[in-house]
Amino acid sequence: MKKMLMASAASIMTAGAAFAAAHSTEVKIGVILGFTGPIESLTPMMADSAELAMSEINDSGKFLDGMTLVPVRADSTCVDSAAATAAAERLVTTDGVVAIMGADCSGVTGAILSNVALANGIPMVSPSATSPGLSTAEDNGLFFRTSPSDARQGVVLADILKDKEIDSVAVTYTNNDYGKGLSDSFISAFEANGGTVTLNAPHEDNKADYSAEIGALASAGGDLLVVLGYSDSGGKGVIQAALDTGAFDTFMMGDGMYGDALVEALGADMEGSFGAVPWSEGAGADAFKAITDAAGINGESSFTRESYDAAALIALAMMAGGEATSEAIATNLLDVANAPGEQILPGELGKALEILANGGDVDYVGATNVELIGPGEAAGSYRHYTITGGTYETVDFK
What we know:
There is one protein chain. This protein is 45% helix and 20% strand. Strand 13 and strand 14 form a beta hairpin. The protein has two domains: 236 residues, Response regulator (Rossmann fold, 3-Layer(aba) Sandwich), CATH 3.40.50.2300; 145 residues, 3-Layer(aba) Sandwich (Rossmann fold), CATH 3.40.50.2300. It is of the alpha/beta class. The strands form four sheets. It has a seven-stranded mixed β-sheet with strand order 7-6-8-9-10-15-16, with helices on both faces. A five-stranded parallel β-sheet has the order 2-1-3-4-5, sandwiched between helices.
């Protein structure tokens, strides 16, 4: 009987060791985005794109002697810093992630960086947090982003108005780090170009009625209304109120306003409105469209390219460092993102792993022509679009 018990115990221990060994080959990556909140119509495609890069790495079978990347999703809410911090803490302490692909909105990204990433040495690569304030945030070399700062977006928006010879606008922005940073950047550039802002007014998200805000903006006047908000929340509400009252019929929009849901709801009434959103063109963008189409993913939504690139960079940095650790990611991410090295496009991650395994260098071009500058943020390019026939139509790239 004792021998049987010992044999059973040995079997259990062997099975447990086998499970632990198998489990240890998993490398968990947090995917923290606003699955609820003011950009919830965008984040499923962003997450799918990031996870497509991880699947591509796994399918190659070449990542660190057969280790497997496992995405773990968490909800940033986009706007609730306390909830986002708690979600990130669970990713680190409970799920054991070595890096975070995210967060998305600037305020919650800053909160996660200062409250979770710094304390635990966890690198973050955000595909969409664009506040200029993040450029100078204390990060100990742990924070990167694949979308350009709003310091540049403000200039792009101002230059679009200059090209259109529009020199008087009213501005409304979502009342948070993202909205205020973009508003400041835009107004500085617009006024430097000789433009006049009749009123710069914040709006709160998730209000039922924006008639008071529109009344003030309409009274101030302007050739059009600049809306720097979110397509699923206050920005959409402000535009709807303006259309309902006839206060404005043309709008210029920042990147947070770009979304299929917006034109589906309001596009027929927004003919001629326009804006800018981080975007890219060229071989990398074409390759990304090919692999997302093949996977049944809507890669033409905003920040999908940046999400794929963020996840790819995390994996390639680990491969370059030879270990699945946070330290390897932080140390090697800039090296794999920039020249020198063999250029890598979407769909070529297996090739990149081979090069790195053989001691070579890669220059990850990705879907967005990645080039990380300064404190690890993207130079980036913007798609200037106009709404024509209820759809987004490209004007040019800036």
